[in-house]
Amino acid sequence: MFALSLESIAFTLGPLKVHWYGIILGAAALVGLLLAVREGKRFGLSPDFFMDLVLLGVPSAIIGARLYYVAFKWEEYNDNWLDIFKIWNGGIAIYGAIIGALICGYFYARRKGYGFLRIADICAPGLIVGQLIGRWGNYVNQEAYGGPVEESFLRDTLNLPGWIVDQMFINGQFHHPTFLYESLWNLVGLGLLLVLRRRPFLRAGELLMSYFIWYSIGRFFIEGLRTDSLAFQGPSWFASLIDGLWSPMTAVFTAGDLSADYGNVRISQLVSLVLIVAAVAFIIIRRKTGAANERYSDPIISRKTGLPAGIVVQEAGDEAQAGVASNAADKGSKKE
Fold it and tell me: Which residues cross the membrane (predicted)?
C-alpha cells in the first residue's frame, strides 16, 4: 500500500526554510483570488481591485487568526512573546482569520466606493475555497486533529489512502482527520455557493450569510471531535445544551476529550451557533423590512460616481476623448 508521511518543511534555500504550511496558504489565497476575479468581471470590477484586496486581506487574515488564537492561549505566550510570531508552528484560528479579512474588506470596499455586502458576496466562494485548501496545512503540521480512532476505521471504514492514514498517526496512536472532514464539507459548500449565486431570488449579502451558515454548521459538529479546541469554563447548563445539539454525531463518532480544567465549552462551537443565528436573522429581518431590495445580480454601483462599476472607467475615457476632440476642433477652426 502506498504511504507517505510528510515533514513540515518543503525545502530549504540556504538558511531559509520554506514550510508546506505557507505554500498551502499561498495556494489557497491564489485560488480564492482567481474565483473572485472571474466573478468580478461580470460586474465590471477589474482584476487589480481583487489583487489589491488580497494583498491587504491575506496579512489581515493571518494577523486576525493569530491574535484570536493567542488571546485564548495567552498563558502559553505571556512569557514567550517571540513565539507569537512563529505561525509556521501552527496556532491560528479560522474564525480569527475571517474576522481579520472581513474588517479589511469592509474598509477597502468603502474606500473604493462600493457597498461592502456586494463585494463580500463576490468573495464568499473564495473564502470557503481558501479554507478548503488551507485545512491541508493542518494535515502537514499534524495539528487540529480529532480524538483517537482505530486504524481500521480510517483504512477500512472510511477507505482513506495510506498517505492520509499514516499522517494521522500522532503520539503513538491514530486520530480523526478532522482537517479532511472540514475540507470535504467546504467542497460541498463551494458547490452550493456557486449554484446559489446564479439564483434570481438571491439578495445582496445573502451569499455571504449562506457561507456563514454552511461553514458554521459543519464547524460546529466537526469541532466536537477535536481534542485541541480553544475552550472556556461555562455554566454547566450551557455545556449540556452544546452537548445535546452535538449528540446526533454520537451515532458514528465519539466526542474529543477536553481537559476539565481547561474548559467545558468549545469557543468555535459557540461562535458557530452565534453566526448561524445571526446570519439567519440577518436574512429574515432584511427581507421583512424591505432592506433587501438589491439583488445579487444587480449592477454594482459606485457610491463615488453613481455609475455601475464597469462604466466608471469607460465614462471617464469617453469624457477625455470628447475633450480631445473638442480641442482639436477648436484649433482647426482657428486655423481656417
Answer: 20-37, 49-72, 92-109, 178-196, 208-225, 267-285
Which three three-digit cell numbers place residue 183? 475540507
Per the annotation, where are the binding residues?
A: 135
Number of neighbouring beta carbons within 10 Å of residue 26:
13
**3 state DSSP class of 289:** helix
Distance CA 302, CA 114 (A): 5
CA angle 254, 147, 258 (to 5 degrees): 90
pLDDT band at 88 (very low <50, low <70, confident <90, very high): low
The candidate with the shortest Cα–Cα distance to 124, out of 193, 55, 25, 216, is: 193
Q: Cell numbers at residue 207, please?
A: 451569499
Judge whether 245 and 220 are in contact, CB under 8 Å.
Answer: yes
Per residue, the 3-state secondary structure of 156-191, as one string, reads HHCCCCHHHHHHHEECCEEECCHHHHHHHHHHHHHH
92 neighbors 55 (Cβ within 8 angstroms): no
- β-strand partners of 170: 173
Contacts of 86 (CB under 8 A, 6+ apart): none
102, three cell numbers? 472581513
> Which of 113, 127, 124 is closest to 64 using CA atoms?
127
Residue 57: CB atoms within 10 A of its CB come to 27
Grid cell listed for 48: 487589480
What pLDDT, in 10s, does the model give residues 191-246?
999 999 999 999 999 999 999 999 999 999 999 999 888 899 999 999 999 999 99
Angle at 28 between CA 174 and CA 215, to 5 degrees: 70
Total number of residues shown for the chain:
336
CA separation for the pair 276, 95 (Å, rounded): 13
Listed in sequence order, the DSSP H helices in the chain are 20-42, 47-72, 74-77, 94-112, 116-141, 151-152, 162-165, 178-196, 206-223, 236-246, 267-289, 309-335
